[in-house]
Every structure is written in structure tokens, then in C-alpha cells.
Amino acid sequence: MANRYFGTDGIRGKVGQWPLTPEFALKLGWAAGRVFARRQDALQGSGEGRSRPHVLIGKDTRLSGYMFESALEAGFAAAGVDVLLVGPLPTPGIAYLATTFRSAAGVVISASHNPFSDNGVKFFSHHGQKLADTVESEIEAMLDQPMSCEQPHALGRARRIDSAAGRYIEFCKSTMRLRGNGALSGLRIALDCAHGASYHIAPDVFRELGADVVVIGADPDGLNINDGYGSTAPQQLCAMVVAEDADVGIALDGDGDRCIMVDHEGTLVDGDQLLYAIAMDRRERGTLTMPVVGTQMSNLGLELALRNAHIEFERARVGDRYVFERLSAHEANVGGEASGHILCLDRATTGDGIVSALQVLAAMIHRAVDLKTLVAPVEKCPQVLINVPVKRGSADQLMDNKAVQASIAAEQQTLGAQGRVLLRPSGTEPLLRVMVEGVDLAAVNNSAAIIADAVRDAAANA
Question: Are 57 and 83 in contact (CB under 8 A)?
């Protein structure tokens, strides 16, 4: 059964609209607290050595974060779970600290790259990884139970952790593994923090590693997160790199788990290209474990470039949790998405924008080339997307339609190894998305139109 609240990246929505209300956050804290306490009891038993479970709560810079932080704290306390509050901190920082503090879980209040009017809650396990589906289902089941309160002597406590930012900064620096604190000496970096959770972290990381850093998007006011800044709006950064004569630009998103970059000419470099740079550097060092994992939406140019380098490539469903699943199944270490959500599992347990950027900078230094040269072998293929309106709930049936399948097979044969076809239902609208990409734009347009017509005909006759 599908979850009612949890999506691929926690619970997310408009602030003030169910379920992103203070009442729900209170109940969510209690329900999650009950589940985490029960699981810890199962591990520790009920003897004298049993410790009270605690969770770590962090947030990005949205104004609504204060409200949800307080509500979650109260819910956990009612469930008898202690709370460690770290304030604004990138999502991957919470994942890291959850492990170092031996927390039952890490909790992040954030809506990532979305506008300030959205917010959300996501959880990490005590291993610093996103919760398993089974644990999310347990929390949802507990949400259906009437909320109760522990006896006064068993209520949870809360305290602030003032060392959180410093601990995470040192962790990020440690992942570069080059020449200590002078590793980035001589580099001029333009940095965009999206007015988000990395505003007081990322500048210090790059400066303490020796770089000359110019910063934008580091003045959050609770309302300006991702507003014209960050990885979803990199235009200012592209101009800034050229104006400041920077060697490279780095754009993070609101919660710091994604990054995209800009080369010295002001040209945008997306997550597919960065993934290639990291994989090739690991391969050259002898530390790459294959396959490299992308998603169904990773550009064909990435696949072809890796193929030319004799590096195995596999596609997962869209979403970093599915990339993580495939990497874990193969015991591989590098994967990601074009959006800049990159996983380097030999450095961190989850996607981390700062850590990903450091891996690219390490590759530039190791190979003594600029970013443009580093990613040049990835020639992005033209991609055409046609959204075909369909009846709600009919997309899966249309994808299995014999005529549609025959059309897909015929066009895939025409495109050959230099192209690919993907049909994907929209997760939010009654649309079936027809995506075709390949090296020849005219062939791609033609194939996309033919398949879209087949879908329309099938929908009309359904």
C-alpha cells in the first residue's frame, strides 16, 4: 500500500495546508518518537543499561522552520524521546551528525529547492541514511493511533548543540583528502548558497581549505531561500564567475544536498557532467567501484561518455533514494542525478552538495585541468519531452498498450544505440510524458512525435 504522507523525499507541502500544519508536526514527532523508541528497545532490551533514545533536529532557513521545530520537539518529548537541536544546517550535515551523536534518527525540516512557502520533514536513520520504507510505514500506522503522553518523569528533554556547525565543517574538509588545509590554495571560487542552510557552512569550508571565495546568496531572512539564487537559479552565479574572474562557480540548493557548477567561461555544468568528472577521477585513482548509477532522466551523453571510457552505467528510478538502493546493491560508490544530487558513498552516506563540489575540485587539481576540460567528453544529447494528456489513472494501462509498445520498439530500433525512449507518468498531473533523446535532433523530434501520436490514439480508443 502506498504511503499517505511520505513521498520519495519525506513529507512535503505548502505551509499551513495539511499535512504541513503545526498540529500534524506535533503528532508526527510523537508517532516517529514512538517508532524510534520501540526500535531502540528491540536492540537494547529493557535492562538497566537501556538509554533513553534521542533524535537530532535541524532545519534550513525558512521562517516556518521555527514553528515546525517547536511542534516536532514537543511531539518527541511527549513520546519520551530526547531532542538535540542544531538549528540551520544542511541536510547532509544532519545525516552525518546523527551517526556521530549515535542518535536514533536525524530529522530535517526543509523543502530543499522549493520556495519559502513550502516546507517538509524528512528523516535519516542512525546510520545516516534515508529511512527504509518499512520504517516510514510504521510511522504512518502510528499516526492513526490516539496521541498519548509519557508519565512526567519519563518525558523527553531538549538541548541545543552549539558545536554542530564546526563538526560538520571539519567533516566536509576531511572528504577532500588533498594536502590538508591548503588543498584549494590558488583557486578563486564564486559560491552561491541560495540563502539556505549552507550560508554559514560552505564559505568556511572552502576558505579554510585555502580558496579565495566570493559569496552570494548568504543572507537569509526567512523568506528569500532559493529566490533567484542557488542551483535552480544559477544565472547570477554564471555572470559572477566571469565578472570576478573566478576559476569555478558552485551553486548549492536551499538545504545543501545538491550542487551544480559553472566553468571559468560562465557556462553551466550540471549534475550529469559532474558525475562523469568524479567517476573518471575515481577510476584513474583506482577507487571507483562500478557501476556508476544515474536515473531514467540522466542524459544519454553521460551514458555514451562513460561507455567510451569502458565504465559500466546503470539507470535507477528518478529520486536519489533509488540511486542509493542500486549503489548499495552493487556495493558501488558513485551515482547521482542531473539536478546535482550526487552520492559519493566512499565519502558520505547521502547526497551532499559541498562534498560533491570538493570531489570535483579534487579532480581538477589531480588532473591539473580546468572544469571545462574535465567535463568536455560529455556531449549533452538533444532531449525532446512531449506531455500527452490522459485520463487520470490510465497512464500505466496506456504504457502497456500494444500499439504504443510497437511504436516504441520501432522508434528505438530506428534510433539504435545512439538514442533512447522513455515513457513516464507524471506524479502530479494526468499526463504521460514521452521523452526521446539521441545524437540527431531531427531523428529525436520525429520519433517523439510518432510515439506521442500513438499514445494519443490509444487514449482516444481506450
Answer: yes
